Amino acid sequence: MYPTYGYAARDAASPLAPFEFQRRDLRELDVRIDVQFCGVCHSDLHQARNEWRNTLYPVVPGHEIVGRVTEVGKGVTRFKVGELVGVGCLVDSCRTCASCAEGLEQYCENGFVGTYNGIDRISGELTYGGYSTQLVVDEAFVLRVPENLDPAGAAPLLCAGITTYSPLRTWGAGPGKKVGIVGLGGLGHMGVKLAHAMGAHVVLFTTSPSKIADGKRLGADEVVISKDPEQMQAHANSFDLIVNTVAAQHDLNPFIELLKRDGTLTLVGAPEHDHPSPQVFNLIFKRRRLAGSLIGGIAETQEMLDFCGQHGITSDIEMIKMQDINHAYERMLKSDVKYRFVIDIDSLRQ
Ligand code: NAP
Ligand code: ZN
Ligand code: ZN
């Protein structure tokens, strides 16, 4: 067993606080990783505060993890000590169902094992995430991080990156396509960068006028203030795809009206309370689609990391110490982060 230091929430109302625990002894195919950086996803906050009503306490959040391999199990073939690796939202799945067979472990029909708030399939123990000094993970769920990327800026790719990359690929973002990204937060700013790199015409929708210049710098061809009906109307019936990353309940109709015939609005934001049901006629008259998308499978996550390596794409980050996490959560709730907090895990080692 490996003594490990982290931060955990003990219940929905308490702030995160120091928490010591043990990582398991290495199984044959396990890799042990010294965590260097961990991104702060809005899902961490939803989960720490039990906003999805399924949190198992204590919860050690963190699923945007980058670090170096420190030890490998006897049967490990894919990784060596010293390699720069990443772990995202998944650490296991059944590996036999139809979804797993297609490399879509996030849709495992028997339930994937989350990096935190999951139940290990062998020991039955609760999984603990990347707000911690080290991690032990089966090599099948470990990703290779391109060495040319800044490791701190690469950490958010493991969730924010893949969660936007996957729907952009699924619905064919690329040259000649008009793609909207709603919300310029952690996911949204990755969505803008990735859609731009894929060659799409990118329109950012934001509620924050202060983010217009950043939106353009990050790769948006146009920026629309989504609260302004006139600006919205100017884009009616024109989008092939809109990816909605907003973390709070809101009216979807103004976005659905912007889709062309056969266009798709994909929800990736996962708010505590459901959005009101959109108008049916808005969908049926133009055969528009309302869809959802969950992170991405392991193979697609590696594809995304390699794509980012080739295009030099990382997240815009603000580095924090582990001890600052509760303040960072409050700022995230006010959309006051440009554009992802990343925890320097060395702050846990001092
Ligand atoms: P974030 O950094 O807090 O960004 C969310 C953005 O949404 C904000 O920056 C803001 O952008 C906009 N927003 C917030 N409150 C709003 C409101 N009341 N009305 C309109 N816009 C609002 O969060 P994140 O880490 O990107 O995560 C976004 C959501 O995706 C969370 O719910 C998270 O749990 C979920 N998520 C889902 C998946 C998946 O697999 N589907 C994976 C990861 C995360 P503007 O200031 O530009 O308006
Ligand atoms: Zn996440
Ligand atoms: Zn499965």
From TrEMBL:
Source organism (scientific name): Paraburkholderia caffeinitolerans
InterPro entries membership: ADH-like_C, ADH-like_N, ADH_Zn_CS, CAD-like, D-isomer_DH_CS1, ER, GroES-like_sf, NAD(P)-bd_dom_sf
| Ranges for domain Enoyl reductase (ER) | 11-343
* Keyword Isomerase on entry: no
The protein's name in its UniProt record:
Aldehyde reductase YahK
Single GO MF annotation:
alcohol dehydrogenase (NADP+) activity
EC number(s) for this protein?
1.1.1.2
Q: Which key words are in the record?
A: Metal-binding, Oxidoreductase, Zinc
Instruction: Supply the Gene3D superfamilies for this chain.
Output: Medium-chain alcohol dehydrogenases, catalytic domain, NAD(P)-binding Rossmann-like Domain
Q: PANTHER family under this entry?
A: ALDEHYDE REDUCTASE
